[in-house]
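Appendix B. One record, verbatim.
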Amino acid sequence: MTIDHARSAIAVKGLRKSYGDHVVLDGLDLNVPQGTVYSLLGANGAGKTTTVKILSTLINADAGEARVAGHDLTREPDAVRAAIGVTGQFSAVDNLLTGEENLRMMADLNHLGRAEGRRRTTQLLEQFDLVAAAGKPASSYSGGMRRRLDLAMTLVGSPRVIFLDEPTTGLDPRSRRSMWQIVRELVISGVTIFLTTQYLEEADELADKIGVLDHGRLVAEGTADELKRRIPGGHVRLRFADTHGLDAATRLLGEVSHDNDALALRVPSDGSLRSLKHLIDSLDERAIEVDELSVHTPDLDDVFLALTGNPKDSGTQTTTNENSQNGKVTIR
């Protein structure tokens, strides 16, 4: 793997870690460009948290090379720590302190002056919508508020790289989406996010690139769409108003699956815009009228289960119909 270190926020080559005979990481290679979100997916025990602990200098690797924010992990650990922030699976909030006191404590730990510490605290309370709760003990905060405060504490030192280890575990859907918006705003400002999650929707929403980790090895990597196209099962469903259209499309398209009762055909597709355009153009050239066209693509659940040895039978449907809730693209 060739890495442009000038543009890489995180560059990893051949990372290995074992505990006795148990191999946790087995030659991991990663390259995360600056100002992007990289999401590492994997089942429990796949090595996600171990990767974060190594890259954030909490534990040492057995072998391999890594640079974070331009600094060598082994030779410059202090410089790495100064450039990163870490929000782990479990909140680092002190329940006995108020939200404001938690942030001021972090300002002191980051050696900010009193005036600068107060300015940064005020800024973060406003950014994370915690002004009204600033003087309340953190023990009274909801799960979503605690998570926002936890991330705000991570940002006190203005890190260039942030490690988010399953940051929305246990949050309700509204709080989770609020965290997603915060992450997007951080990336727009130039921060690099390294995200581990078991919520595949979260990776699909946020990640510029996704890596799938299985038994310590990176078994796949790419954008969400690239990974989905690797999994078979994508198809276009064509429904016709009468048997005339159904028969004409069958003669044109050749090997397709039939649903005669519903006057429908199922045409294999990789889900790409090019293949969909080719299909529509072919039907249009023969003046074959389609009553309804639906694009069905595998989702990240299918990708994850297929690549980690647990294939799933059916895919998810993707849609542009605003009134639909099942994810099916429908063109009428």
